TrEMBL record:
Binding site for heme c: 47, 50-51, 143
PANTHER family xref list: CYTOCHROME C1, CYTOCHROME C1, HEME PROTEIN, MITOCHONDRIAL
Note on how the cofactor is bound: Binds 1 heme c group covalently per subunit.
Cellular localisation: Membrane
Record field: transmembrane: 186-204
Keywords carried by this UniProt record: Heme, Iron, Membrane, Metal-binding, Signal, Transmembrane, Transmembrane helix
Record's protein name: Cytochrome bc1 complex, cytochrome c1
One of the record's GO molecular function terms: electron transfer activity
Length: 215
């Protein structure tokens, strides 16, 4: 009986520890251009070798405000309308990982938790005592630690990697809805037009009723 109670306590304790380890770190993405551009640079250096952003074109980067020389350097001989395809072919990816790395265009919308999930995933890598790398957020992942957070022991280096992950997620949040700012600006015009139209119709209604009351 005592052994059963001890075992039950251990099971309860372990069930409390695991959710704490896998808890998402809630973040607020940056929407300013410098942060998004830094995230783009970091993603191109750390993720683009395997992952694509098929719903984002080089033209979208120009419209965002990225310098044309940088965009031209990134795209090489590809047209401006070409998507940001990864450098690793599907066949090579299947041989290396047994699956094709997912497209990142809508990743912050596809995962429950949104940007917080992706941020926590990037920083969720750790090494076991026997030297095997795992991820707390997605244990079944086959992707190697892209930022090297699992081997970073210096506090300053870990803080730097957290900023890098935050910038990458900010870029991916923009990539999941690159026309959001444009829609917001258009929304202000639409609301202004509707307010003007409402005031105009109200004035016309008052004028018509004023004429009817005289009769």
């Amino acid at each position: 009986m005592k052994k059963f109670i001890v075992l039950l306590i251990l099971c309860c304790a372990s069930s409390q520890v695991w959710p704490e380890e896998a808890t998402l770190q809630n973040i607020k993405v940056d929407t300013d251009l410098p942060a998004i551009e830094r995230g783009m640079d970091d993603l191109m250096n750390n993720c683009h070798a395997c992952h694509s952003l098929k719903y984002i074109s080089y033209l979208d980067l120009l419209k965002l405000g990225i310098d044309k020389k940088k965009v031209d350097f990134m795209r090489g001989d590809q047209p401006l309308a070409a998507p940001l395809t990864g450098m690793l072919s599907d066949e090579a990816a299947m041989q290396m990982f047994g699956l094709v790395p997912p497209d990142l265009s809508l990743m912050t919308k596809a995962r429950e938790g949104g940007p917080s999930y992706v941020y926590s995933y990037l920083l969720g890598y750790y090494n076991t005592p026997d030297g095997v790398t795992h991820n707390r957020i997605f244990p079944a992942t086959k992707m190697p630690d892209p930022l090297g957070i699992s081997t970073a022991t210096d506090p300053a280096k870990r803080e730097e990697l957290k900023k890098t992950a935050h910038d990458i997620v900010s870029f991916l949040a923009w990539a999941s809805d690159p026309h959001s700012a444009e829609r917001h600006r258009l929304g202000y015009y639409v609301i202004g037009y509707l307010l003007f139209l409402t005031a105009l119709l109200y004035a016309v209604k008052n004028r018509i009723w004023a004429g009817l009351k005289k009769h």
